[in-house]
Amino acid sequence: MSTRVKMILILTLFASISGGVLSIVYLFSSPLIEANLLEELKKSIFLVVPNAKDYDEKVIDEITYFECRDESGSTVGIALPARGNGYQGVIKLMVGLTPDLSRITGIKVLEQIETPGLGGRIGEDSFQNQFKGVQTEPAVEYVKNREPEKDTEIQAITGATISSRSIVSIINKNIQMLKDAL
Amino acid sequence: MADTKSGDINTGNKSFSEFIKGFWKENPVLVMLLGMCPTLAVTTSAINGLTMGLAVVFVMTGSSVIVSLVRNIVPKQVRIATFVVIIATFVTMVDLFLKAFLLDLSKALGPFIPLIVVNCIILGRAEAFASRNSVWLSLVDALGVSFGFTVTLVFLGGIREILGMRTFFGMSVLGEGFEPWVIMLLPPGAFITLGFMLGAKNLIDRKMKERKKY
What we know:
A: 182 residues, alpha+beta, two-stranded parallel ribbon, elongated, B: 214 residues, mainly alpha, 8 helices
């Protein structure tokens, strides 16, 4: 057998075996991966909208949001997935809102690659909990070097103003987009 | 295969030395300076270093054994392509496994798991060792080198985690009085720590050599 034919045969053989093995592994792992992602989504929704027991996925003008219900079936809030640019990369959030979108009930940072120890602290509870009860009208604001006074204010993280500002602007922008769409 | 029956007495010793060399004499990070990208990027904590290391252990052991098994049927013109296919298969398996069972770790390591495909330690061992040696020796070599890599990464990640976050494997080790050195978690911290580790290794080697002389 000439080397050329052998080369093609061997490489084809290896690629086919590899493809076969991987499709079997994928077959077993993909349901688990999907379940993981769904579980994470559920957890973040129920975290940002307290009292929520169930939710409906709604899409309006290509904006996806989750309408949350309690046991009796009445709407208790809206969970809005939001995303935007941070200091070093994309930040993904889940924002919990009252049904009329006037107050934030909680936020959860889902994905971020901010500087560890500085901007990365946007993922800490002490920062995220500040947003509970914050008013969204006219807009959420951040303050530096002093305690928040108004209902719309949160305190920025020392040394991570850009990341804090990014979170606030992502929230404002995405809420506005939802309001415009509704 | 000529290398299977070359004296069983020597095999034991040789296997042991092939295994142990990866930890110190031919440590992939501290001596060969290979695989620097994951080494520097993921070692912000000890657990990240450990997971990355174990992923490499799995990929390297699997691919070295397969490469060694098929070393006589692969034409030399397509050997690198074949090795990459084999390595990529194992890497994808690890990636899917982490996503299915350890989602948080998979997120922390991000793109560095898929990038093991191009980690030159693995291709380097496949090309330099596994494609020329018996399956047994290749397995031992892969285990030694990859565990040497893991230990180094845990060490590097541990130092950065302790100084940067006051914790080790998530457990608090330094009191509240210690101000965390944020720079240790940033890329410069990786270079600084690695530099000191390289220096320490060379210093120890030199001292041992001097002691042997007298």
